[in-house]
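Quick start: what a row looks like.
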Amino acid sequence: MDINYSNPVNFKLKDYDEKPEIYNLGFREYDARWLYPEQINLAGVQKIGLGLGKLIKQSDNNGKISVGHDFRSYSEEIKEALIGGLIASGVDVYDVGLTISPGAYFSQYFLDCDNVAMVTASHNPNGWTGIKMGNEKTLTFGPDLINNLKKLIEKKDNTSNKNGKYIFRNINNEYLTDLISKYKINRKIKAVVACGNGTAGLFVPKALSSLGVEVIPLHCDLDSSFPNYNPNPEDLIMLKDLGKNVLENNADIGFAFDGDGDRVGVVDNKGQEIFADKIGLLIARNLSLENSNSKFVVDVKSTSLFLTDKILKKNNSEIVLWKTGHSYIKRKTTEINATAGFERSGHFFFNKPIGRGYDDGILSALEILKILDNNKNKKLNDLYNELPITFSSPTMSPKCPEEKKYDVVDKIKNIFQNKMKNNEPLAGQKILSILTVNGVRIHLEDGSWGLVRASSNSPNLVVVCESTVSEVRMKEVFHGLNTELIKFEEIGDYDQKI
């Protein structure tokens, strides 16, 4: 794959004409997101590079870092400022250039870099930037490392007497070769591929086409203004547009990818969106048939069917509900050596022999294509219809300020714990249990549930509901939750609503 872009050669600590600006709440639970340049400037990014370099030198690893960037118009200049700080801290930097997040994760193995920094704001609207960081192969930062980084950034002794080395190495060809090497698709499959004009458009059509898939590209040309919609495979705007194009092209499946290529959304051959937790369940079923006694990590936003599925139970699969967030699910999947981890946002994680444990939207799509290839007489909607029926809401995100969202969720948790203690129903149903590993997930007597949690990477809450009874009951659960939510003046408008 030939990708042309400028190759910066003069990396050193710059004396910017501005004081470093870093909005402190841009540091989230496991990565960092800011509006640029309103909340962070290049001097601030360089300061982060100095702090990150100091953290790396304190870590027990090989001290090398792989750094990549996405296609946003300002991402390369942000990456340059970050690298300037890293080199001044004495760290050796391998610049892998324009890539997607799984490409950067792959480069850690290919270039033997224990550390990684990917400049991307993923699916956030244009104007946002961010950094995904890790100091172990496969794993990305959690809250402890984020807090350590914040402390180091404030110190003034992060420069080194000896600058680190700068090495440029494009790894995109090697990444794609490694990705598809284990797959062979014999079935004729037509797929609409939607990339929302994000960086994944450089990679996905080529990867699937090389395996014989007939690819119908949809918004795969790179345009950092995102003229059609934000590349967010959880967003119904993107999925509805994808479904329309699946029907128009008589395709077998539709894939939607986020801006940095680590998530995937799916539309079936009928043009209907299948939320990623149900796709995860189909994959888990397939993997449990290949390997009994499998372990699967599932985030708290996901369908309760993982806990009751007959095929998973028959194959002695263990299900672990865990915190939402790619770093959390990734780390838990690695810690317990699970076969795979699934997050409702479309982050999927596969350990050996399938993957290396990190999230890769293209690898996830290949596992879905493998299911179709193994079931040549069935369409995707046939396989989906074999699952028990549940009625799920989309992921809904009402606005809530960064500095208040966790406190609001704690108060909501107390409200519903008191309701359960006092035998007060929700949606006319008794509250059976409340899971608080990540926000508050309320389980009702009829199998329905509702979740409220703080978003890990934006100034929002997250609300998800599901019912095994009816769509009406699912909406009743949402309205029961929302009746309490609207009492908080800190909570604003939803991005989408049922």
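That is the whole record. The longest strand covers residues 92-98. Residues 1-9 have pLDDT under 50 and may be disordered.
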